[in-house]
Design brief:
A middle domain of Talin 1
Amino acid sequence: MHNARLRELRQCATEHIRNYLATLNQHAPKLNAQATKLWDLCRRQRLVAGVNDGAAAALLVACQDAYSPICETIEQLKDIVKELVSVVAEYEQKQPTCMEENLWLADTLSVLHTHLKYLELQSDKLQPLLADDTSVHQFKQELQLVEASISMGLAQAERQFKLSG
């Protein structure tokens, strides 16, 4: 019974990791487009600020509309990581020894935490009136960096599932 629960927890953790990657892959093209749109709107808003207050205000609203989906996606990713943290905590409680076969879970969780933190930091630089070309480039780059690390963790998980039966 104990081993069955551990296996179930490993499978649940793996599903959360896959869900994170799928959510990121699903939203990345839209987030890239939103970041580019946000940069363009912010640039235009800076050009008309002080010259045409009505246009500047309308562009600021458009900037916020472009920024909102970025924040919403990051919140969605945070929720997935919170669920994963809960599963990992229960797993570690039931399997407290730090065996090599369990390291993939801790390593992958660390990668997700780090990625999420970098996404948050980069998205803060995209706030309306702050976005510039460098910020947009860094945000887009951060969206792409994590996939290899997560895939490595999933490959290790699959190997462990095969080894454990």
